[in-house]
Amino acid sequence: MNTKLVAISVLTLIAGYGVFELYKYYMKMENDKFLIDFIKGKEGFREDPYLDSANVPTIGYGFTYYADGRPVKMSDPAMKRSTADKMFLEILEPFKEGMEKAVKVKQNPKQMAALISMAYNNGVEAIRTSTLMTVINSGGTGQEIRDQFRRWVYAGGKYIPGLANRREKEILIYFS
User: What percent of the chain has pLDDT over 70?
Assistant: First the structure.
């Protein structure tokens, strides 16, 4: 890319938005990238439909439904990674919005990332109405919050070591 063109573009952005706005925009992009990479890494990618640990048909990056709201079926065709990448961004938005509405106290971007990951894994409504959210919104202690994260390690009534591992990672992110 032409160096002069890049410099002119950057100067135009600075003039139009100001340095602070550009910094906020950059940090939002960095936080979104962290969140996306974390969830994708924990979910993994599977092109063919499969039953998750709770016996729910799943595809892509842990999708149990498509962006248009249709539930995943075991008879659905394989999904390309490029399709899953695009759909992930669409599907993630309601989880972000749901947690932003549910949290009533100030959270830093890493804390929000941990909560959005929890919601992505368990559902917005489940986390919104959880004791975890009550503890966070009432100013609970660090240990109380950790204990609540650690309750979310079951699927279909069974203890799932992978969920326990994910919760520990979310705790590390929440308190980083």
Answer: 82
Mean pLDDT of 124-149: 98
Residues paired with residue 50 on neighbouring β-strands, in sequence order? 58
Domain 3-174: top CATH class: mainly alpha
Hey, how many other C-beta atoms are within 10 angstroms of the C-beta on 72? 19
Q: Where are the domains of the chain?
A: 3-174
pLDDT band, very low/low/confident/very high, at 10 (cuts 50, 70, 90) = low
The structure tokens listed for 165 are: 């591992």
How far is the C-alpha of 17 from the C-alpha of 14, rounded, in Å? Answer: 5
Rounded Cα–Cα distance for residues 143 and 175 (Å) = 11
Q: Indicate the residue type of 80.
A: K
β-strands 154-155, 57-60 pairing: unpaired
Q: Count the Cβ atoms, other than its own, within 10 Å of residue 3.
A: 7
Please state the pTM of the whole predicted model: 0.82
Residues in the chain: 176
